[in-house]
Design brief:
Helix content of chain B: 25-40%
Strand content of chain A: under 5%
CATH topology of the largest domain in chain A: Hypothetical protein af1432
Number of domains of chain A: 2
CATH class of the largest domain in chain A: Mainly Alpha
Low-confidence stretches of chain B: 57-61
Order of helices and strands of chain A: HHHHHHHHHHHHHHHH
Distance between the termini of chain B: 38 Å
Strand order of the largest sheet of chain B: 1-4
Strand content of chain B: 5-15%
Shape of chain B: elongated
CATH architecture of the largest domain in chain A: Orthogonal Bundle
Number of strands of chain A: 0
Mean pLDDT of chain B: 82
Largest interface: A-B, 26 and 23 residues
Number of helices of chain B: 3
Low-confidence stretches of chain A: none
Oligomer: heterodimer
CATH superfamily of the largest domain in chain B: Molybdopterin biosynthesis moea protein, domain 2
Structural class of chain B: alpha+beta
CATH superfamily of the largest domain in chain A: Hypothetical protein af1432
Distance between the termini of chain A: 37 Å
Radius of gyration of chain B: 17 Å
CATH class of the largest domain in chain B: Alpha Beta
Chain lengths: 289, 111
């Protein structure tokens, strides 16, 4: 027996429904306007973040954690704007506040502490992989990693009965969660999350990797970013850094790995580097959530 | 000869191939006998593995940390079985992740 809600679940409807309930963190739109306005100064941009005290505190702690490796102490948002850069700071601030958007999801359906540990780990590992590949502006990897499973949260809040049924069914059939989703709904949490981020007007280098993290071959614009998120999630699952809806290690697309061109023993180095950062970042971002 | 990870290098080993850093800059030529200073240089320049004359490939499964017992390893492997059930364990990346996961689990779990 399927719940009555099932027949009219579509990706578009879920995105609309979510946008009606949860607004894009308010500062994001204003921040974008400020960045794009030709006459705004760094002080104007910083002011928008400073209005949110909790967010300010979290960003300063993040910016000063060893993960960032900034040589100067970042003691104010104004400094953060100049050192981290406006767009990276905007994306970071978005991720830090997006974590607070989905509240009130029952623990039995999805344990949020495990969920965010999985997401944050994925962000950090993705960021370290990108650094290893000498990519610039690595914060976008961190943000895409943190948000990669946001589609699951949409389902937890909009269609909890169906979500619970999906979770049970994928485990009892022993199949991957995103396969169950595609079978029962016709789309998966990756596409759903990407669609929401796109509707929220996040840049394509964030929403495409989220959309395609279970099918990196479909990423046309940002195949490298997508491959990195794809691999980072698999690493988190294998090493049991937190848990999301998936109960086993997702299948690795060999082409995605080949695209990175890394030797296999980089993995142990990445882990070594990431583990302490995961603990610290988790503590900073979960504070007051 | 074979690739050897820098953690397993020892002073006195002979390089079978040139060593380059990640940007492709030549650090040491083949035939050089490693000294302590060279090992530091490899770490400084982010070299992960070098080709050593006479060593065998295939000791990629580096020796277990001493404090882990065989029982702990086996328990960890059994516990991880469901997690990897749908994975292609022939792929080198999955094999390496499985190895790392087993070691991590065995080290964390009390015997």
């Amino acid at each position: 027996m399927s719940p009555p809600e099932r027949s009219h679940i579509t990706l578009e409807r879920l995105v609309d429904q979510t946008r009606a309930i949860y607004s894009l963190p308010y500062f994001y739109e204003r921040f974008n306007e400020a960045i794009n306005h030709p006459r705004s100064s760094i002080a104007d941009i910083a002011k928008i973040i400073i209005e949110d005290q909790g967010l300010t505190a979290r960003i300063l702690k993040l910016a000063n954690s060893p993960m960032f490796g900034y040589y100067a102490k970042v003691d104010s948002i104004t400094r953060a704007v100049t050192i981290i850069g406006t767009q990276q700071l905007r994306d970071l601030a978005f991720a830090a506040s997006a974590m607070g958007v989905f509240k009130g999801i029952p623990d039995e359906l999805m344990n949020m502490a495990f969920f965010w540990r999985h997401s944050i780990s994925c962000g950090i590992i993705a960021r370290n992989l990108a650094t290893c590949l000498r990519e610039s502006n690595v914060e976008r990897f961190f943000v895409a990693g943190i948000l990669h499973d946001v589609g699951q949260l949409i389902m937890c809040s909009a269609i909890p009965e169906t979500m619970s049924e999906l979770l049970t069914s994928s485990r009892s059939k022993g199949e991957h969660f995103f396969h169950t989703e595609r079978d029962m709904l016709g789309f998966d949490h990756a596409e759903l999350g990407g669609a929401l981020l796109q509707a929220w007007k996040l840049p394509p280098n964030i929403h495409e990797p989220v959309s395609c993290h279970h099918a990196p071959r479909h990423a046309l614009q940002f195949p490298l970013e997508t491959s990195i998120i794809h691999l980072a999630e698999i690493i988190c699952q294998a090493l049991e850094f937190g848990i999301s809806g998936e109960w086993c290690v997702s299948p690795l697309e060999p082409e995605a790995w080949d695209r990175l061109g890394l030797p296999v023993n980089t993995l142990s180095m990445i882990l070594h580097q990431s583990e302490p950062q995961i603990e610290e970042t988790f503590t900073i971002l979960m504070e007051g959530l | 000869m074979g690739l050897t990870q820098i953690d397993n290098l020892e002073v006195g080993m002979i390089l079978a191939k040139d060593v380059h850093d990640r940007a492709g800059r030549l650090l040491l030529g083949s035939g050089v006998e490693l000294s302590q200073k060279h090992l530091t240089i490899f770490r400084t320049w982010g070299v992960l593995e070098v080709d050593i004359a006479g060593s065998e490939d295939g000791d990629q499964n580096s020796p277990l940390p001493a404090e882990i017992t065989t029982e702990q390893m086996e328990a960890a492997m059994a516990a991880l079985e469901p997690l990897f059930i749908n994975s292609d364990r022939e792929h080198p990346v999955i094999r390496e992740l499985h190895r790392l996961a087993v070691i991590r689990k065995a080290a964390h779990e009390p015997s």
